[in-house]
């Protein structure tokens, strides 16, 4: 480290030696400054912890929102269905058929041709006439069922004693009515077997 | 560069060695990944994709809501309700089947025995219990079932189509089958009504959508409402009056059309017999359509109105033109007679119409030059579909000019040898009411596109002048004489206090089997009121009445009732002018 300097010195004239000496570069002693580590570590951990907690909270709130959304969606579906039900009910209530039926039950009858009163002059336009009750069937006709739904009645002639044995329970009463024809046949057999027993 | 410091810890080896070792490790790891990738993607990718999808990924259809069919005031003729089907899993329900069946019978009014069998069906895991149950009701039932600890019942989407007015306008509206529309406007305008279903794919955890999970939603496009020109209340009343009329006359069937004179909008189009749109299978197939548009028939004397108005328009005759009507008229192939026996009588043209004389009409029609009557009748719209949006509409049958013979013209002049449909004929008579301008009838408010691609509705209404305004007025004055108690044949069609113009029709009907006149009749009445400022045109037709009645006595009173109701409903006051006093005889 010290060897090159004398060589230079020998070549350079000693005129401005003092200035030269002043301008010489020397190695500055290394200064070690230690920045305080604590604040940085604290900051980073805070950011980290904050981020994790924030993420957690965010996630939780999203989850909550999802629960709420599901619940609200269910509610909205229920309410929409209810609204449609009510609209359907309203449509049924304002069915002219129903209104006419209600009117007829109240004793109302059909009006005849209209007449008008001119409010200014009190003049009557048209021929006013009293409404008289005339038969007016308002209920829809029973449909004439197609043959598949309207089979010919199954008539079974029963020649049996007027012995009535009812072992049916009340539960199957509805079934009896529906399967009248079949039951009729069954009863016949039943009664015939009774006859055989009596013979 | 010269190594200034010896490396610390020589056990790590030189960097080159370390690098190589590192690369080897990385290559090994990557080849393991690569092998796994080939295994997953190359060998059987679909099963893994399916496994991934099954893991909490839900795919649901978002059904579009079907549009409503409305009347002119926005009242529903058909509407859609969110519905559910109730389905049972017999594996779970078999154990408690009788209790569940009783419960369902009470709640849903389903058949007990059938339900019991379904709940016990062996080897099945999916049985319908009830279909098209309103969602509110279905959810109540399921909640009650859960409360009673009945397992194995669940619901599925099953939209419900409701016809709140039952049989009212059912002939036009039609109905839906299980999956598709089967008839009427429901089918014709299905594209507009049905909309497009959407779908949603999302991941679910514990019944809730996972936020930030996969989530794709295609929103459904709901169907659009279809508004008709029908007036629900008037339609109901017309249907009931028509039914009463057909039944009282012992007829086979009938129809009635109520039309707004100025706009051509059809306010009511009733058919009898008809059906309940909620239960279409309970009625015979023949009753499921609209006879007014789908059946052809010979209009009979109502057509005389068109013939005579054409003669007046051509300037060949006036209502006072004097005609000598013999008891019978021998023409080419057969004698033409009148409906009433008479000697030689002297009628004016107005009298020919008022008394509905076939012979008088034929004599008057002799003044036409060849082709003129055909030209007029086709301008009145006969022989062409009205295209109002009802499927299966018939063209009617107006003989082409090439087939037109003189003896055919004799019969066509009084309404035989040509066929029409009800709305066609109503629109033709409406031309007289509307001052000689034929306005095309319409059933759809605004415009809509049929399944055949035609645009129909009030937006496409066309008008064309057929006869002059003066000719229309003269014809109207002649038609007024028809309902005159002394001069005319249909006093029953009068509406007290109003001037009414109309015309009866009693036509021989063509039988289906013999393709000839089978002795039955089609009776009808067409007219409009108030005669000097018409608001409505009403046309009533009854097929095969068995009480011996004609157009005046059967269809006339029905016309009167329907017209009186329409005038009252729309608050049309009488015009207060004096009715026509045209002479009928001379």
TrEMBL record, chain A:
Chain intervals for the UniProt region annotation (Disordered)? 161-199
- State where composition is biased (Low complexity): 171-181, 189-199
Carries keyword Transmembrane helix? yes
Q: Which residues cross the membrane?
A: 40-58
Keywords assigned by UniProt? Membrane, Transmembrane, Transmembrane helix
Superkingdom, natural source: Bacteria
What's the protein called, per UniProt? Answer: Cell division protein FtsL
Which species is this record about?
Nocardioides caricicola
Automatic annotation (TrEMBL), chain B:
Superkingdom classification of source? Bacteria
Q: Tell me the keywords, alphabetical order.
A: Membrane, Transmembrane, Transmembrane helix
Repressor listed as a keyword: no
**Residue ranges of every copy of the Penicillin-binding protein dimerisation domain listed in the record:** 62-178
Give the main location. membrane
Membrane-spanning residues:
21-38
Please give the coiled-coil regions recorded for this protein: none
A Pfam family for this UniProt protein? PBP_dimer
Subcellular locations according to the entry: Membrane
> What positions does the domain Penicillin-binding protein transpeptidase occupy?
254-563
Q: Tell me which family the UniProt entry assigns to this protein.
A: Belongs to the transpeptidase family.
Q: What is this protein called?
A: Peptidoglycan D,D-transpeptidase FtsI family protein
Name its species: Nocardioides caricicola
């Amino acid at each position: 480290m010290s060897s090159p300097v004398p060589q230079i010195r020998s070549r350079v004239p000693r005129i401005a030696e003092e200035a030269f000496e002043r301008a010489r570069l020397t190695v500055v002693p290394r200064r070690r400054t230690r920045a305080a580590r604590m604040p940085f570590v604290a900051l980073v951990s805070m950011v980290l912890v904050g981020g994790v907690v924030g993420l957690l909270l965010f996630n939780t709130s999203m989850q909550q929102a999802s629960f709420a959304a599901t619940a609200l969606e269910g509610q909205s579906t229920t309410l929409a269905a209810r609204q449609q039900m009510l609209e359907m009910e309203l449509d049924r209530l304002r069915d002219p058929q129903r209104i006419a039926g209600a009117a007829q039950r109240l004793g109302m009858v059909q009006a005849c041709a209209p007449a008008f009163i001119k409010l200014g002059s009190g003049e009557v336009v048209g021929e006013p006439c009293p409404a008289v009750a005339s038969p007016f069937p308002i209920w829809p006709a029973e449909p004439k069922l197609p043959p598949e739904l309207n089979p010919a009645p199954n008539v079974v002639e029963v020649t049996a004693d007027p012995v009535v044995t009812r072992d049916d329970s009340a539960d199957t009463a509805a079934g009896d009515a529906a399967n009248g024809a079949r039951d009729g046949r069954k009863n016949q057999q039943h009664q015939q077997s009774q006859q055989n027993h009596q013979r | 560069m010269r190594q200034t410091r010896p490396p610390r810890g020589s056990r790590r080896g030189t960097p080159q060695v370390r690098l190589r070792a590192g690369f080897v490790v990385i290559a090994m790891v990557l080849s393991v990944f690569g092998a796994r990738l080939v295994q997953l993607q190359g060998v059987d990718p679909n099963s893994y994709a399916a496994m991934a999808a099954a893991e909490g990924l839900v795919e649901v259809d978002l059904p579009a809501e079907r549009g409503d069919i409305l009347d002119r005031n926005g009242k529903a003729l058909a509407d859609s309700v969110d519905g559910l089907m109730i389905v049972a899993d017999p594996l779970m329900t078999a154990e408690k089947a009788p209790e569940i069946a009783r419960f369902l019978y009470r709640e849903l009014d389903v058949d007990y025995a059938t339900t019991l069998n379904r709940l016990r069906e062996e080897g099945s895991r999916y049985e319908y219990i009830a279909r098209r149950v309103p969602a509110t009701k279905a959810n109540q039932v399921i909640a009650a079932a859960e409360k009673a600890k009945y397992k194995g019942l669940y619901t599925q989407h099953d939209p419900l189509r409701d016809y709140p007015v039952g049989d009212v306008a059912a002939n036009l509206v039609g109905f839906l089958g299980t999956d598709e529309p089967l008839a009427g406007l429901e089918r014709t305008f299905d594209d507009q009504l049905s909309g497009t279903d959407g779908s949603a794919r999302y991941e679910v955890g514990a019944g809730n959508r996972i936020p930030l999970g996969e989530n794709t939603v295609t929103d459904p496009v709901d169907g659009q409402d279809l508004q008709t020109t029908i007036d629900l209340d008037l339609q109901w009343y017309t249907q009931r009056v028509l039914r009463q009329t057909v039944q009282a006359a012992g007829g086979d069937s009938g129809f009635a059309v109520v039309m707004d004179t100025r706009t051509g909008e059809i306010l009511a189009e009733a058919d009898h017999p008809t059906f309940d749109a909620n239960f279409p299978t309970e009625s015979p197939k023949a009753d499921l359509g609209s006879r007014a548009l789908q059946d052809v028939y010979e209009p009979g004397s109502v057509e005389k109105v068109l013939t005579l108005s054409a003669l007046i328009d051509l300037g060949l005759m006036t209502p006072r033109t004097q005609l000598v009507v013999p008891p019978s008229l021998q023409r080419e192939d057969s004698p033409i007679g009148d409906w009433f026996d008479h000697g030689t009588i002297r009628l004016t043209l107005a009298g020919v119409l008022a008394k509905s004389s076939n012979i008088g009409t034929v004599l008057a029609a002799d003044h036409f030059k060849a082709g003129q009557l055909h030209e007029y009748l086709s301008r009145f719209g006969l022989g062409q579909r009205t295209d109002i949006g009802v499927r299966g509409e018939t063209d009617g049958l107006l003989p082409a000019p090439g087939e037109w013979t003189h003896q055919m013209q004799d019969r066509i002049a009084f309404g035989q040898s040509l066929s029409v449909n009800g709305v066609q004929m109503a629109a033709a008579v409406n031309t007289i009411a509307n001052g000689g301008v034929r306005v095309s009838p319409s059933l759809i408010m605004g415009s809509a596109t049929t399944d055949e691609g035609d645009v129909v509705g009030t937006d496409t209404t066309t008008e064309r002048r057929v006869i002059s305004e003066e000719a229309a007025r003269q014809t109207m004055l002649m038609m007024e004489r028809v309902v005159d108690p002394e001069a005319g044949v249909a006093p029953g069609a009068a509406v007290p206090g109003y001037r009414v113009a109309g015309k009866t029709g009693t036509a021989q009907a063509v039988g289906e089997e013999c393709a000839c006149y089978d002795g039955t009749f089609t009776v009808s009445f067409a007219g409009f009121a108030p005669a000097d400022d018409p608001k409505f045109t009403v046309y009533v037709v009854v097929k095969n009445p068995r009480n011996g009645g004609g157009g005046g006595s059967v269809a006339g009173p029905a016309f009167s009732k329907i017209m009186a109701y329409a005038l009252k409903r729309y608050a049309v006051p009488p015009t207060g002018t004096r009715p026509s006093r045209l002479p009928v005889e001379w």
